[in-house]
Amino acid sequence: MKRLLVVVVALSVVLFSGAAFAADTIKIGVPGAHSGDLASYGLPSLNAAKLVVADINAKGGILGKKVEIVPEDDVCKPEVAANVGTKLVSEKVNVVMGHICSGATKAALNIYKDAKIITMSPSATNVDLTKSGEYPNFFRTISPDDAQANLQVVFAQKKLKVKKVAVIHDKGDYGKGLAEFAKADFEKMGIKVVLFEGITPGAVDYSAVVQKIKRSGADAVVYGGYHPEAAKIVSGMRKKKMKTIFISDDGVRDDTFIKVAGKYAEGVYATGPIDTTKNPLAIAAIEQHKKVYGTEPGAFYLNAYAATECLLQGIEKAKSTDYAAIAKSLRSNWFQTPLGKISFDAKGDAKGIGFAVYQVKNGKYVEIGK
Amino acid sequence: MDYFLELFFGGLTRGSIYALIALGYTMVYGIIQLINFAHGEIYMIGAFTALVVASALSLLGMNGLSLLMLSGVIAMIYSAAYGFTMEKIAYKPLRDAQRLSPLISAIGMSIFLQNYVLLAQTSDFVSFPALIEEFPFMESVTIMRSSELVIVVTTAVATTLLTLFIKFTRMGKAMRAVAQDKTMAMLLGVNVNRVISATFIIGSALAAVGGVLISSHIGQINFYIGFIAGIKAFTAAVLGGIGSIPGAVIGGLVLGWTESFATGYVSSDYEDVFAFGLLVFILIFRPAGILGKTTSEKV
What we know:
The complex is a heterodimer.
Chain A: H1 2-23, E1 25-32, H2 39-58, E2 66-73, H3 78-90, E3 95-97, H4 102-115, E4 118-121, H5 128-131, E5 138-140, H6 147-158, E6 164-169, H7 173-188, E7 192-198, H8 207-216, E8 220-224, H9 227-239, E9 245-248, H10 255-261, E10 269-273, H11 280-293, H12 301-318, H13 323-332, E11 335-337, E12 340-344, E13 350-351, E14 355-361, E15 364-369
Parallel strand pairs in A: 1-2, 1-3, 3-4, 4-5, 6-7, 6-8, 8-9, 9-10
Antiparallel strand pairs in A: 10-14, 11-12, 12-13, 14-15
Helix pairs in contact in A: 2-12, 3-4, 6-7, 9-10, 12-13
Chain B: H1 2-32, H2 39-59, H3 64-91, H4 100-120, E1 126-127, H5 146-168, H6 170-180, H7 182-187, H8 192-218, E2 220-221, H9 225-240, H10 245-266, H11 271-285
Antiparallel strand pairs in B: 1-2
Helix pairs in contact in B: 1-5, 1-8, 1-9, 1-10, 2-3, 2-4, 2-8, 2-9, 3-8, 5-6, 5-8, 6-8, 9-10, 10-11
């Protein structure tokens, strides 16, 4: 008899909750590349969303409602993404966690903007998505392409007080891209870029470039590229007894650089991603993925995990699914995520994620500021 | 003016290294008309040998000039052995084959040696000790560093010795004879095999000298350094007139200066554009290179 009672109670709970589920849920659209060449960029984000939502639903949902995921495949193509956007709007999703590729995100963003839906991408790094100010509904949990250069420039100006800089790069996509962003940022701040040059990677030596830096009278060199060339330039400068500050990027924030440049590496600054591997939330999120899916999570997994959490916590803290309320909540609250403690600035870029400045001290890179 | 002189000496240093490697290219070409694409790898092996030897010897407490000399000499011997063996394995069996066959063999040798060092050592850049110490008398000189001085002087001495060797010794005479006409030299009793081996040994030893000096100057090496240095030295040899020994030196220096001044006064973005532009320009007016002799095709 007692057993029967338990079964009845259990059944009724299931039935009632099922009814509640159908009637009123918070819908989160998860568009991205779920098939095709770039599926490996999109699927980890979908997995992350599923895990976060399952956790939240197990705890009773938010605002007393269950959360429902509406996945849509945009195969990272802008033309498909626009259709996906229209479809999600007609499904009446409350928020969107996506898209994955910058081009697809841009194509769908106007549709969400008109429908007043908050959109948060875990992976779209195109600078204009936030900086142009055209998309007040857009947020992201990844640093824009120019974040590293931006940090270098702000650091050089505020902490190092440089007046004249030489910007050198290795002509590669990565190095040259960063160098161009850095140059533009320096010029915006009124710092004179006295030298802007590309060098040939692998050349026998860079003594001529070092001479040129010396003659330019720059206080600091900002180098975009990788560590072998950086080591040659730094050693060349120090052997010539030049004390010019050397600032570089993640390509140089590598222990090989210190090993090769030896004592000449001391004092070199380099930007690099903030370390999340020791964050307990990140460790837990990765363990969860391994337990549920049996594999290591792929690209942008933690970013998507953080984005989904921010969106849902944002709704909870706003106590509403209203567009303006969520936007305000995202900009004014700090959220604990696997990427660390984050919030969002006026343009939608995340604060607290991305890059930090490191400096070589006693043969080791030490984080000295964010 | 200081700036000009600094660029001048920078270019001279770089050009000297190109010249040391170019000598090997040009000697081998002069004797067996082979472009030895694996020559850059010999230079790289020289640098690695010196690194290993210098690390071991500095553990024993040796330093300064004696360390540079000893590791340099061992690197030369080691590289010479590689050059000698390379010729026996990869080129000698193909001596009577079509001209393309040894060329392909040379490219294969180059790939083999690169990967051999990659596997035997490491794929990373490794730090190379500064074997050339700062001389006290160079303290007040700002336009040039001690290591640059050593590189330039060594190149000058090595080139002079090589020229004297070719002009005045029996082996040198035999080399010239083989370069002029291999069959005739053989008929007159010149041991062609020995001459060819000697050429490879001398060229390889010179490349090793270049490798040790520049690595010590720059402070880092990896398995791939021979490729770019080799291409540049080959360009220098062609620029100066391949087959000609003073031509290799002039070609190396011209190339080094062009690169240095192009970077200094125009932009390092166009360093290679200027270097290869100059090559094209010279080859238009002197198809055989600066000091090359135009020979009529033998039928």
